[in-house]
């Protein structure tokens, strides 16, 4: 035990000596680190001084060459050697840093800014000329300048300006005046579409070249037909240029199509209808030509999308189309087939004629649908449905005049009746004619109207499948019912929203088709049912007409008492 204790004590002493030596080593390392750190700090200070000396030397060397380089750069700009001018400008930027510590820095910085502005303006002019002349090589050089100056959208903006100018020239070549005829306005719009289609074919490769990424000193090598990754976030240049030109045309047409609020005579209505038909045909053909052009490729759907500033299709034109191409012909047909109310016809003949006219009207949805399809406006199927509802409802409201004729006849019979001849107010033939009218509305026409609803819904479904170029534009235009119902407002906002809600439902039912027409027909049937009831009750009404004023109900109390006493005696 004693030897073991001595060993432990010896080990403890050695541990204490080791700890003391380790502390000495750590102190030595700390001193060495402090010396090294101070040495590195000194080296950094020396490096800063060295850099300042080098900058000062560079500034002294460049003082004499600055003006020469500026003149060389200006000469390159004036001679059209824009890529070399860009390199010289970038070189001057590096030289400018050498003057940062000198008093001449502000002056030379302003001088460099002016030089860059000259370079940018020259590149813009030459790029515009390159687009106008269809010169891809010259445009490529300008794009290199724009990329080097971080102005990547300059070329696209210039292309937009060129296309706008081309469309303006085409419009002005026709020079439609205020109050221009349908043919003059259609010719001006057609000239714009023709110029756009021609410009796309001639400058298609040039516009597609603008889609490719471009960096300073290198040419794009991607396939022009393949959208680049850098252009994925921004609309393609070709799409933006075409939309800008179409928006310019929409702005011009808005001033011609604006409604002045004046009462329109038949001639004015006819001229506006001709104008709407002509412009719709021009847009249908023009859109088809643009969509088929090679530069646009599969990008037509992008062209059709409106933005807050650019309208591919003007709302004013769509309102005119809905009013004069869709609604007005339907209203004319409904008015022409209104129930006859001529006094020359017997009531039974008038009822049969009204039924015949209504039957003919309810056979017209295919005619109305075909008319829209011929105009290429199938995607206006929802407004078309609302217009059908309005026209048929107006027709059923025309039955009120026929029903009123029966009502007046009944009143006349009632006035001819006297207390002595109450049967004179009863006319079995009139009752039979009223019941005939009710049977036609309740059974015959009700069944035909239900078939009409189903056929109308079928036509709407067929029209919605249209895939024409103007069909895509109309479908995009009518995407949000909350917007387009308020914009069109024809035949009414409520009718448009009702039709839109019907088509948005998963399974449209016939019971919800043409709600205004169904309500108007139900109202006419209700009036006829009341008329039949009055006709049946008229003899009793005539007999009881003087009943409240009979002597038994107006005698005094004394007379009644005397009579009672007499009866009792």
Total strand segments:
0
Order of helices and strands: HHHHHHHHHHHHHHHHHHHH
Average pLDDT number = 83
Judged by helices, strands and strand pairing, the structural class is: mainly alpha
Largest sheet: none
Work out the radius of gyration: 45 Å
Shape: elongated
**Number of H/I helices:** 20
Beta percentage is under 5%
Distance between the termini: 160 Å
Work out the helicity level.
over 70%
Which stretches are low in confidence, meaning pLDDT under 50 for 5 or more residues running?
215-233
Architecture blueprint of SSEs:
Blueprint: H1 2-62, H2 66-79, H3 82-98, H4 105-133, H5 136-148, H6 154-174, H7 182-209, H8 237-257, H9 266-291, H10 300-304, H11 315-336, H12 347-361, H13 365-375, H14 381-416, H15 428-463, H16 469-477, H17 481-488, H18 493-504, H19 515-543, H20 557-568
């Amino acid at each position: 035990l004693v030897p073991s204790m001595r060993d432990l004590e010896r080990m403890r002493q050695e541990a204490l000596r080791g700890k003391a030596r380790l502390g000495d080593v750590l102190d030595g390392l700390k001193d060495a680190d402090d010396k090294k750190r101070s040495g590195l700090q000194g080296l950094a200070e020396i490096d800063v001084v060295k850099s300042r000396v080098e900058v000062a030397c560079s500034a002294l060397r460049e003082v004499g060459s600055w003006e020469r380089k500026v003149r060389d750069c200006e000469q390159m700009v004036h001679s059209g050697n824009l890529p070399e001018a860009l390199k010289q400008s970038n070189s001057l930027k590096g030289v400018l840093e050498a003057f940062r510590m000198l008093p001449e820095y502000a002056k030379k910085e302003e001088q460099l800014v002016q030089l860059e502005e000259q370079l940018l303006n020259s590149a813009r002019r030459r790029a515009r000329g390159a687009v106008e002349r269809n010169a891809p090589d010259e445009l490529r050089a300008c794009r290199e300048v724009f990329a080097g100056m971080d102005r990547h959208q300059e070329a696209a903006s210039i292309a937009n300006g060129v296309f706008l100018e081309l469309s303006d020239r085409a419009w002005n070549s026709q020079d439609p005046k205020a109050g221009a005829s349908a043919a003059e306005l259609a010719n001006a719009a057609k000239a714009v579409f023709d110029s756009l289609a021609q410009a796309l074919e001639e400058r298609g490769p040039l516009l597609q070249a603008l889609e490719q990424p471009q960096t300073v000193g290198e040419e794009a090598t991607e396939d022009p037909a393949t959208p680049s990754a850098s252009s994925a976030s921004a609309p393609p240049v070709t799409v933006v240029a075409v939309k800008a030109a179409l928006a310019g045309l929409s702005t011009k047409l808005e001033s011609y199509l604006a409604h002045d609020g004046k009462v329109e005579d038949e001639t004015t209505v006819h001229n506006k209808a001709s104008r709407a038909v002509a412009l719709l045909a021009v847009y249908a053909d023009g859109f088809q030509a643009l969509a088929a052009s090679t530069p646009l490729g599969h990008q037509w759907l992008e062209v059709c999308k409106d933005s807050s500033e650019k309208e591919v299709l003007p709302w004013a034109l769509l309102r005119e189309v809905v009013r004069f191409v869709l609604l007005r012909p339907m209203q004319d047909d409904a008015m022409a087939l209104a129930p006859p109310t001529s006094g020359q016809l017997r009531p039974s003949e008038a009822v049969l004629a009204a039924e015949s006219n209504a039957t003919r009207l309810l056979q017209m949805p295919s005619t109305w649908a075909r008319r829209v399809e011929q105009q290429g406006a199938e995607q206006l199927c929802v407004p078309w449905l609302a217009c059908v509802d309005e026209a048929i409802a107006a027709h059923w409201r025309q039955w009120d005049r026929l029903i009123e004729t029966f009502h007046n006849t009944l009143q006349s019979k009632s006035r001819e009746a006297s207390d002595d001849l109450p049967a004179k107010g009863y006319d079995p033939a009139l009752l039979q004619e009223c019941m005939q009218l009710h049977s036609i509305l309740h059974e015959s026409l009700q069944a035909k109207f239900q078939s009409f609803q189903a056929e109308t819904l079928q036509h709407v479904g067929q029209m919605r499948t249209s895939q024409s170029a103007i069909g895509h534009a109309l479908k995009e235009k009518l995407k949000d019912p909350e917007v387009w119902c308020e914009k069109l407002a024809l035949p009414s906002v409520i009718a448009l929203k009702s039709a839109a809600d019907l088509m948005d439902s998963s399974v449209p039912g016939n019971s919800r088709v043409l709600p205004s027409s169904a309500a108007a027909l139900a109202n006419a049937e209700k009036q006829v049912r009341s008329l039949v009831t009055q006709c049946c009750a008229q003899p009793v009404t005539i007999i009881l007409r003087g009943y409240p004023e009979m002597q038994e109900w107006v005698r005094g109390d004394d007379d009644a008492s005397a009579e009672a006493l007499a009866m009792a005696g």
